[in-house]
Design brief:
single chain; alpha+beta; 7-stranded antiparallel beta sheet; 3-stranded antiparallel beta sheet; about 40% strand; globular
């Protein structure tokens, strides 16, 4: 009888432990540049994606995740690339009510050095959005960007869903 209780406790512990796991799928870029694991709560948007832009919607109304290939860039470092991009976002013709809310910080994505930052802006519908973005210059000289966007200011701190995606990131160069 004591053995039966122990078995029941072990089964219950396994079930409780499994209930907290996140289901995910392996996403491989159709051009063969990278792969990563993405949680099932993210829905791939084929009609909005191209060979240069992979778009995913999250469970919330404003959750957006995207990976963007920007072709060859003339910047020697990710910091130069990030600084110029932020300058354009905040300049004339850029994002409405643009505000840099988290300064540039070094980040590594599967062995490639990059720069992260976060900013807020107003979209075309008047919604205030926050975006955490990573800028990379790949060894091939190509610009690449990873971004997570939502209506919550907590995004500026480095969103947990993005941390998991980056942990599983692999370059297929």
């Amino acid at each position: 009888m004591a053995v039966g209780r122990v078995v029941m406790v072990v089964i219950l512990a396994v079930l409780v432990g499994c209930s907290g796991t996140v289901q995910a799928f392996l996403f491989t870029d159709p051009t063969g540049l990278y792969s990563t694991q993405i949680g099932d709560r993210w829905v791939y948007q084929a009609h909005q994606s191209t060979s240069e832009l992979m778009v995913f919607y999250g469970a919330g109304d404003f959750e957006l995740l995207y990976f963007e290939r920007l072709g060859p860039v003339g910047y020697a470092t990710a910091l130069e690339f990030a600084q110029r991009s932020i300058e354009l976002y905040g300049g004339p013709g850029g994002l409405e009510q643009f505000e840099l809310v988290r300064d540039f910080a070094a980040v590594e994505v599967a062995g490639v050095q990059g720069i992260s930052c976060a900013y807020a802006y107003q979209d075309g519908y008047g919604n205030r959005l926050w975006e955490y973005r990573i800028f990379l210059v790949l060894p091939t000289g190509e610009g690449f960007s990873i971004a997570f966007s939502d209506h919550s200011p907590e995004v500026a701190e480095g969103p947990p869903p993005l941390e998991d995606i980056l942990r599983h990131w692999r370059w297929l160069l």
